[in-house]
Design brief:
The chain contains 15 helices and nine strands. It is α+β, with helices and mostly antiparallel strands. It has a domain at about 215-330: 2-Layer Sandwich (Nonspecific Lipid-transfer Protein, Chain A), CATH 3.30.1050.10. The strands form three sheets. The chain has a five-stranded mixed beta sheet. Strands 1-2 form a two-stranded antiparallel ribbon. About 40% of the residues are buried.
């Protein structure tokens, strides 16, 4: 990752705004309580049975602010109001289901979605995604000192806190090394977090006009983390390039001459032997799509929406199908 792609402390990555909703476990509960119809505050308290009215009001305000709930008057009184689920709110509930499935896969055993452990795991994931630690660690181990040089836009203390949170929650683990410092690698559980991040990103793009763009950082991190999990046919062989037309800014596109990002994957006898963040002209096999197309394909399947080319299109299909099943298959 070059300095030009390094984040600043306040930068928001695609999917982060929806993911932040789940740092407070009451938010998905409030949304699900509205699934059967509009509710007044008293009715919501009856449904949940335990939350204080101040806690519920704060959650309602946050969910209304992002567009997941909307308020309407009841009867003739201007003080009588109820809240109801919006189409965005229904999609956020689906994101919650994907996130909760990820929590059940935690290395130490399933994590209950409404407890402190879930809150800690979600906050650690959000910190890793927002600081691009996930991109940096996607296919190589690094020490804290090395990451500090690689990600200059985030302070050393902030990186240290985020690494500690990721390690405590089982998203990274240390590896033995002969040099100074402790290198860290991602766990399979962190790789599987691409599922809720994809779901959150698609929800934002569908419902938030000012959603954060999908750039090379998100594309490369998502592919490099998820591809090692993808099951492939034992006869799969060759090289394929998976490419996304990113939401590059005009300035970035002018610098690079293109708005494409992706990975080049080498496969031997059904095993991924190499996955590099590289897009080249004239690849032997390729799959191309917009960010929205890729999100739909990875989440729902429907591989025919991608543009395919080259000598072994089946290899590209196998890789994409493998990603889909690794992240969203039963």
């Amino acid at each position: 990752m070059s300095d030009a792609n390094a984040p600043s402390e306040g930068e928001v990555r695609a999917g982060a705004r929806i993911l932040a909703l789940f740092a407070n476990p009451i938010n998905p509960q409030v949304l699900r309580a509205h699934a059967d119809g509009p509710l007044r505050l008293a009715g919501l308290q009856d449904r949940l049975g335990w939350a204080a009215s101040t806690t519920l009001r704060a959650s309602l305000n946050n969910l209304r602010a992002i567009g997941a709930l909307e308020k309407r008057k009841v009867g003739g009184s201007r003080f009588a109001v109820e809240t109801e689920l919006t189409p965005m709110g229904a999609d956020v509930i689906e994101v919650a289901a994907v996130l909760e499935r990820w929590l059940t896969l935690a290395p130490g055993g399933p994590i209950a979605p409404d407890g402190d452990a879930a809150k800690g795991a979600v906050k650690a994931l959000a910190g890793a995604w927002g600081s691009t630690l996930m991109r940096a660690l996607a296919n190589k181990s690094f020490t804290l000192t090395e990451l500090d040089r690689l990600i200059p836009g985030v302070s050393y203390p902030s990186l240290e806190r985020r690494l500690a949170s990721m390690r405590a929650t089982g998203q990274i683990e240390p590896v033995k090394a002969g040099g100074r410092g402790t290198p860290y690698v991602v766990t399979d559980w962190l790789r599987q977090s691409i599922a809720p991040l994809c779901a959150a990103g698609r929800c934002e793009r569908r419902h938030l006009p000012d959603s954060a763009p999908i750039t090379a950082i998100e594309v490369e991190a998502a592919f490099m983390l998820s591809i090692p999990l993808a099951p492939l046919p034992p006869n799969a062989n060759g090289t394929a390039m998976l490419v996304v037309k990113t939401d590059a800014s005009p300035a970035a596109e002018q610098r690079s001459g293109r708005n494409l990002a992706g990975v080049t994957v080498e496969v031997e006898n059904g095993e991924v032997v190499s996955c590099a963040a590289r897009v080249e002209d004239g690849p032997p096999t390729w799959a191309l799509g917009s960010p929205d197309t890729w999100l739909d394909v990875v989440i729902d399947g429907g591989l025919e929406r991608l543009r395919l080319g080259g000598s072994r299109p089946q290899l590209a299909l196998d890789l994409v199908n493998g990603i889909h099943w690794a992240l969203f298959g039963d």
